[in-house]
Amino acid sequence: MWRLTRVLHSLFGIHSRCTLFFLSVLLIFPLSTAVIRVAHAKSSSSSVRTVLDEGLTLQEFPFMGREKGLIIVRIDPSLYHFELVQARFEDKQLRTVKEWAGIKGLDAAINASMFQKDGLTSTGYMRGEKKINNPKMHRRFGAFFVAQPRKSRENENRALPYADILERDTPKLNDLLGRYGIVIQNFRLISAERKNCWSPAGPRFTVACVGKDGTGAILFIFGTLPSTPYEVAETLLRLPLDIRTTMYVEGGLEAELFVKAGGEASERFLSFLRFFAGVPNILGAKKRTRLNTD
Q1: How many domains does the chain contain in total?
Q2: Average of per-residue pLDDT across 138-147
Q3: Which of 2, 92, 129, 181 has its CA 20 to 30 A from that of 17?
């Protein structure tokens, strides 16, 4: 929101904070209800799971009183490699999630986290191997996405998940975080015990989340209609997903989800129309069979 008000100020010379906020809301609402495009989709049913590729599925569920609106991309970590893309270690330019995914050849991508006013730094702890975006743990953020387990003498024979979402009260948390190359800290939305961790009050906007289910699959979640994170969590808990620990990663104009499948001829993508948004950090997935061929 603060980035949109700065754009309005620069374009129209508006100085009043109240006026800036009001215009921002007017712009965000129609954008947040924009139609999501799906190219070459085989089914438009809100309850049918579409297999995009082996280990990659897409499903859209009823949401906020509509027949559609909550999109979930399910990713099998045994078949897909997760990558953290950070503008700080690229060219420091903000891009949409779709643009970053195209540059990096990702099959699916979503916001990695919220970011600070410098436009580059994550609001919580963030590390991609030796590339540390933010070394400080946020005291209020209770969820940690981890991926790319490191090999060492100590854990060579111990099967760590390829990707996971840990919680602040996870036993031996610091030890586990050190065993992974990627660590991203965010607000916890749903706990491992399937409890909604968010307060019911608050404004409504589009919401992006990353979660996991009972099988260990990673879920990229996108609420396309204005809602509170609490309402997103309540909807997720009612669905037949066996959803477990889930974290809130972004909301409003910056929230975005991208997914494609099947190669150039049958590319499919989900992406909100964006006029002002660009983000510095995204979380993406690429099929493991393509890691050494791109």
Answers
A1: 2
A2: 97
A3: 92
A 10 A CB-CB count for 140 gives 9
If asked whether residues 4 and 115 sit together in one domain, one would say no
Between CA 238 and CA 103 the distance in angstroms is: 36
Report CA-CA distances (Å) from 287 to 126, 218, 241.
Answer: 23, 14, 23
pLDDT in tens, 147-166: 999 987 555 546 899 999 99
What is the full DSSP assignment across 76-99?
-TTTEEEEEEEGGGTTS--B-HHH
Q: Which of 33-47, 74-88, 146-160, 219-233 has the lowest mean pLDDT?
A: 33-47
Instruction: Say yes or no: 25 and 48 in one domain.
Output: no
* Dist. CA 53–CA 49, nearest whole Å: 12
pLDDT tens digits, one per residue of 99-117: 999 999 999 999 999 999 9
Q: Same domain, yes or no, for 82 and 27? A: no
Which residue type, as a one-letter code, is found at position 273? L
Task: Tell me the pLDDT band of 28, cut-offs 50, 70 and 90.
Answer: very low
pTM for the whole structure: 0.83
Taking CA atoms, 209 is separated from 7, 114, 155, 165, 255, in Å, by 26, 11, 30, 12, 9
Same domain, 25 and 55: no
**The length of the chain, given as a count of residues:** 294
Q: Are residues 41 and 27 in the same domain?
A: no
- Say whether pLDDT at 284 is over 90: yes
Asked whether residue 68 falls in the same domain as residue 23, the answer is: no
Buried b (16+ CB within 10 A) or exposed e, 35-71: ebebeebeeeebeeebebbebbbbbbbebeeeebbbb
> Residue holding tokens 């494609």?
260
Q: Are both 28 and 48 inside the same structural domain? A: no
| Residue 14 structural domain | 1-32
